[in-house]
Design brief:
With 221 residues, the chain is an alpha+beta fold. It is built from eight helices and seven strands; from the N terminus they run H-H-E-H-H-E-E-E-E-H-H-H-E-E-H.
Amino acid sequence: GFEFINEEQQRRLAELNPHERVVYDAIKHAANKGIWTRDLKLRTNIQQNQLTKVLRSLESRKLVKQVKSPTHKTRKMYMLYELEPVRDIWYTDQEYDSEFVRNLSAAVLSILDRKHHATLQDITTTLKQLGISKVELRAEHVQSIVDVLIYDGLVHSLPHPCIRDTTLYKPARRAGFSNFFTATPCAGCPVFEQCGIGGEICPESCEYITHWLSTVDHEMG
């Protein structure tokens, strides 16, 4: 795509020698993920002592900068001077934030305890409403927490009985259905094929599924 480059930056780029330009372009390609010096050396095929000089020159011209790797403290990483490192929500000040992960996991379990069953979207929306995270929580962040809870045996997943390609999550002690689908009103529903979220016939407004879920909650609660 089109990039705006001011005159000053254009002048500094024009002054680069071939080695400096190759290194600059490799760092630029890495965008805001940054690139490790070892990968930079392999990509540019420039010897280490020469590469060190080139990086020093690019840093002094404020074209690139050194940043910390969130996962490997000892690695020297570089990115373009004007970029900010991509933020990983599991890290605070380059340290793995185990307390945040624990709090988030506890909140997910609390939500499932209260709701008895929820989709990933339900859990994500509730977490956002609780304001538990200072950074934006996306569905993939919540999925990674849920996956760990499943691995730890604290949560079970099962196909949603009425919404295709959707997974329901339940606390492990509540996920005791041997044949979940056939126990639902959906199994014998004559308009199951026409049913879908947001449609004229939809699970959200189905009195049978609402009644069935409330019965399940009462039995399991």
